[in-house]
Every structure is written in structure tokens, then in C-alpha cells.
Amino acid sequence: MDHLTRINLTGWDDVLALHHLTAGQINDITGDPYDHWTIARKEINYADQHVPFIYRRAVADHPDVKAWADSLAAASREQAKARIMPSVGRHRSLLLLGPTGTGKTHQAYGALRYLAPTGINWNWTATSSADMYAALRPRAGVDSETEFRRYAHARLLLLDDLGAAKSSEWTEEINFRLINHRYENQLPTILTSNVLPGELMERVGDRVASRLIEMCDRVVIKGTDRRKQAAA
User: Fold this and answer.
1) pLDDT per residue over 131-146, tens digit each?
2) What is residue 96's three-state secondary structure?
3) Is residue 106 a contact partner of residue 219, using CB atoms and an 8 Å limit?
4) What is the CATH number of the domain that holds 75?
5) Is 23 within a domain?
6) How many domains, in total, are found in the chain?
7) Position 151 pLDDT exceeds 80
8) Is residue 187 part of a domain?
């Protein structure tokens, strides 16, 4: 897509309102491929293509999630002062905890959509733990280490449902290597998990839990299972 042209902003009203922006500002065509609005159009278009359909209008309306995203954007701008195109910087991660169906994944994708209009090149990757394990399982024609680096080195990663899969030595090692790399390099990560804070160590192991506690801002999402309510 040529980001020096206007884009369709259907479904973005709530996100733009959080930033006190208008569709007219986003679609202000200056001709500069590196200005705020051109990058914002690129990121909004990327989100429209890569956010799952069910979360296509997700909004980060939890104040702690929004505060984390604002902090990440501010840190990224500060670290990118000498660059032509601002990109995601090093920062603390975000861990969303709580029972199934309370809206953790909605908030996680809402955070990615909230970041889109900020004029920063996010280059994010999103996956569930189950899909990541499936992609990494050794099989003919697939370089598992190359696949692993795609997640470990992502500048901004969303990892959904950590600790949901049945644990094994292999999954524990994958979890540790992934979290440890991102911990040591301060690569911002949005994680969701269907556990309560006191259960974290039991579900993901001591080594992973210790790093998550140190590297993440933790937000507990409370409430009832929205999926069950919708089906009732």
C-alpha cells in the first residue's frame, strides 16, 4: 500500500478519540514518507490486516493498559530522537492476568490498536502460545531456530494464553528461552495468562515467573466470562 494516500478509518473512531485525534489529521497527506501521519496510516493499515477479526475494534479502555502503552510510546520517542523514523524502544512489558473470558486478549489487541496512530513504527508480532509451539515443533523442511528467533527478536510481541498449554520439558524450555531473551534485552512484550498472580509460578515455572515478575507491569482483569454471557 502507498501510505502517501488516504486510508479507510472505519472502526477507529474510539481509538482516535483516546488520542484526541480526528480522521482528517490521520489522512493529512504531506508527501513526507517519514512524518507522523504517514507512519500512523501505515500502522493503522497493518493493524487492520493483522488483528484477528473478532478483535478488529478492540479498545484499550483499562486505565493501566492505556498507561503502559502511553509509557511505551513516550520511551520509544525519546530513544528514537536521532532516527529518521521512530521505532519501538526498550521498555517494560505488560502481563495481563485473570480468568478465562474476562477480556485480556481484547485489552492486549486494544493496546496494539491504541499504539497505531502514535507515529511510531511498531513492527509488532502476535501469536498464541499454542500457535507458537506448533510453529516451533521440529519437522521436515522447517528450521525451528529461525522460527524461534522470529518471536524472540520481535521488537514488540503479543503472546496470548501463556501457561494454557499442557506443560512439558520442551514447552518449559521454549518459554524460558523466549522470556529470558526478552527480559535480558528489555524487548517490550504483551502477555496474557488465565492464571491469578499466586498461581503463576506453578503454571510457568520458577525461572519464567521470576523474570515475568521483574520485567512486567501486571494488570489483573476481573469479571465474569463474557463468552458465556454472550451465549446465554
Assistant:
1) 999 999 988 888 999 9
2) strand
3) no
4) 3.40.50.300
5) no
6) 1
7) yes
8) yes
Q: How many residues does the chain have?
A: 232
Identify whether 99 is part of a domain: yes
- Domain assignment present for residue 31? The answer is no
Q: Which residues, including other chains, have CB under 8 Å from residue 159's CB and lie 6 or more apart?
A: 127, 128, 129, 132, 151, 178, 189, 190, 191, 192
Grid coordinates representing 112? 496494539
CA distances (Å), origin 54, targets 50, 57, 103, 105 = 11, 8, 12, 10
Q: Are 27 and 41 in contact (CB under 8 A)?
A: yes
- Which phi-psi region, left, alpha or beta, contains residue 205 (left: φ > 0; alpha: ψ -120 to 50)? left
Supply the pTM of this predicted model.
0.93
Q: How far apart, in whole angstroms, are the C-alpha atoms of residue 31 and residue 38?
A: 8
Question: H-type helices in the chain, by residue range?
Answer: 13-18, 23-26, 36-50, 63-79, 104-115, 129-136, 144-152, 169-184, 200-204, 206-215, 226-231
Domain holding 199, by residue range, is 59-231
Residues 102, 224 contacting (CB under 8 angstroms): yes
